[in-house]
Design brief:
single chain; 359 residues; two-stranded antiparallel ribbon; elongated
Length: 359
């Protein structure tokens, strides 16, 4: 994750250095000189002063450069936070997916998992167990989990909590927010989550007198509204395809009898298979017990009003500039999309059994 953060922040570091250089150039052109010793005496200075024409002319541009430096610094922090949010969501995925939630069994999703055949490394397996070509091969299939299931919501909640750190606390920036100074309403059990966060804050900072409750609720509301995830997993063709093989199993009257041909068994001598929906649009979908799970987090980062308005305008002199195309104005707020992905291996309870057949 550290290497990914460095790679994401490299362009912003270049912009930050360019902004600092521009600010230094403006100071030099205005005729100002650095006198560090006089800064300590500035608070005692009671004499009047006359602003020079050069300072008045360069002040608006200088303030714009300063805001640009602040904005780039915030974007660098936000990029690192979104990278962490992706890692936190992937870590939540490998914890919750193998869990049994009642409505969703271990390693199962209660929603549809569609196959993304445009993903890299896609090789269609041989699904028919009776086919002579059935067996291990290279490549695999990538499945995309549709939202809505309890496990999906828990993974999304991990990303939302991580993105709260870069979410604004003003209720005016949330489409469901109330009047200025009031906390934005939260859907579902999010109010309980906000209460837990407030209690944690009060326990760590017992002397704080600030209205942290309103700030937490507003930040949580913004993060929930502007954070989305995509969960996908990759099932390699070195393992049996994700389908139910019970139709191929031939029951044995006596456990000591030899197994009939082409029956796929696991280490407990049970038919090997997965919970796959008979109807491809509904039902429970089971993934592999050690399939790599990739979670991508998308967050709409709120820009400062000044730099956001400036960067959202196209620059006709720079046709290759695409920054303004990514910035959107929603509810009076300029938002810049940030995204990051993290991949971790599923930690299911069952062991992975390679292809083996008995005759």
């Amino acid at each position: 994750m550290g290497r990914a953060i460095v790679l994401v922040c490299l362009p912003w570091v270049g912009l930050l250095m360019a902004g600092v250089a521009a600010a230094a150039l403006l100071i030099w052109l205005s005729g100002a000189r650095w006198q560090v010793a006089r800064v300590w005496l500035l608070h005692r200075d009671q004499s009047g002063a006359v602003q020079s024409l050069s300072f008045v002319l360069t002040l608006p541009l200088f303030i714009l450069v300063l805001l640009f430096i602040i904005q780039v610094s915030q974007l660098m922090i936000a990029a690192a936070v979104v990278q962490y949010a992706a890692f936190a969501a992937a870590r939540a995925a490998i914890v919750w997916i193998p869990a049994n939630l009642g409505s969703e069994e271990a390693n199962c999703f209660a929603t549809l998992c569609r196959i993304d055949r445009s993903a890299p490394g896609t090789v269609e397996p041989v699904w028919d167990l009776e086919s002579p070509a059935f067996g291990p091969r290279s490549g695999g299939l990538t499945y995309v989990v549709e939202p809505g299931s309890p496990k999906y919501q828990k993974i999304w909640a991990a990303a939302v909590l991580a993105c709260m750190a870069i979410s604004p606390s003003s209720p005016n920036l949330v489409s469901v927010g109330g009047a200025s100074g009031n906390a934005a309403p939260l859907p579902g059990n999010s109010t309980a989550v906000a209460s837990v966060l407030e209690r944690a804050y009060r326990a760590m900072v017992p002397r704080s007198q600030s209205d942290v409750s309103t700030r937490i609720r507003n930040k949580l509301a913004y993060a929930m509204e502007n954070t989305q995830i995509e969960v996908r997993f990759y099932h390699p063709n070195s393992e049996v395809p994700l389908q139910d093989y019970s139709v191929y199993a031939r029951p044995r009257q006596n456990p000591n009898q030899p197994v009939k041909p082409r029956e796929v068994l696991d280490d407990r001598f049970q038919p090997l298979g997965f919970k796959a929906p008979s109807d491809p649009t509904v039902g429970t979908m089971e993934l592999g017990w050690r399939d790599p799970i990739t979670v991508t987090v998308y967050h709409q980062f709120a820009l400062l009003p000044g730099p956001g308005r400036f960067l959202s305008r196209p620059n006709p002199k720079v046709p290759s500039d695409t920054v303004h195309q990514r910035i959107s104005l929603q509810g009076g707020v300029y938002k810049y999309p940030l995204w990051a992905s993290a991949t971790l291996g599923n930690e299911g309870e069952k062991s992975v059994i390679p292809y083996w057949e008995t005759y």
